[in-house]
Amino acid sequence: MKSRIEALKEVAKANPKKIILPEGNEPRVLEAAAALTSQGIADIILIGKEDEVSKIAKDSSVSLEKIRIIEPLKYPGVEELVDTFYNLRKHKGITRSEAKGAVTGNRVYFGALLVRAGVADGFVAGASHTTSNVARAALYCLGLDRDIGVMSSSFLIELSDSSYGDNGLFIFGDCAIVPDPSPARLAGIAISSSRLYEEFFKRKPYVALLSYSTKGSARGESVEKVLKALEIIRKKAPGLDCDGELQLDAAIVPEVAKIKAPGSRVAGRANVLIFPNLDAGNIACKLVQRMGEARIVGPILQGLNKPCSDLSRGSGIQEIVDTVTATAIRV
Predict the structure, then answer these.
(1) All residues at 6 or more sequence positions from 294 whose CB lies less than 8 Å from its CB, including other chains
(2) What H or E segment, with its residue span, contains residue 12?
(3) Residue 313 CB-half CA count within 13 A
(4) What domains appear along the chain, each with residue ranges and CATH number?
(5) Distance separating alpha carbons of residues 300 and 154, to the nearest angstrom
(6) Each residue of 188-202: pLDDT tens digit?
(7) Among 70, 220, 233, 295, which is least packed by CB within 10 angstroms?
(8) 238, pLDDT greater than 90
(9) How many whole angstroms separate alpha carbon 223 and alpha carbon 254?
């Protein structure tokens, strides 16, 4: 079967969007930008000093044809971006001078503000910046979707073993942003992740709220949190097929589901897995990537007013291409 993550490239090519890559001084990013441009997946804008970016590209034998480079201090609208950031953050005591330093000195903030201003449709960063840096830029500059109420992340997971999920396809959330979500935040993560699944694959999400317990087999504070989240989800998204608390085997293995959660519409068929905390989500994601040899895309940031994604600082060129592709489709 053809990879459905790979098939997303054809969706992106049908309507290419402008995506900002703020890390224009990173060779991997330049190679990915060239690949994305040559394949027609997205129109790429790089952030950086033009002479520096051009030299790195030349040294790496990368063509920057059809790729726009924006240098923050030379950008004609830089003062407008500074004003925007100052107005967004002045309630936190930031001065205009500090705002200018943040906007011109941090390329991720600069790129995020360009997205807010409509210069581009989304941004992807993280090849040389931490997740916390990228997440702050996204939250401060793009703003929170008040309907969801929490910024979180999802990963697209495609397993070579197609026995589970949607023929091996899953979304995992949250694996990168929220350390210990409250019930309300856990509900927001689940709703965001389910919407992302529909958005990418045009298929029905089946959402499992994971736990060490299945339907009362154990008790504890974490189990209670999951049950409270389920109550909130059923009020906010009554049409969503979501169930919990479910252990992983009950969520994805039909034979186990029949024993542990008979009658559940989700158990045994879940394709969106929601983890109770960041420890569980991050460990699970890296386990399936390294030991299960899964193809992984993300972290895709969600719960914001504009699309953007983070990258692992260890991302390869293909992972950057995949993440930009996924971000472009969300526009």
Answers:
(1) 157, 158, 159, 160, 288
(2) helix 4-14
(3) 7
(4) 4-143+304-329 (3.40.50.10950), 152-290 (3.40.50.10750)
(5) 5
(6) 999 999 999 999 999
(7) 220
(8) yes
(9) 22
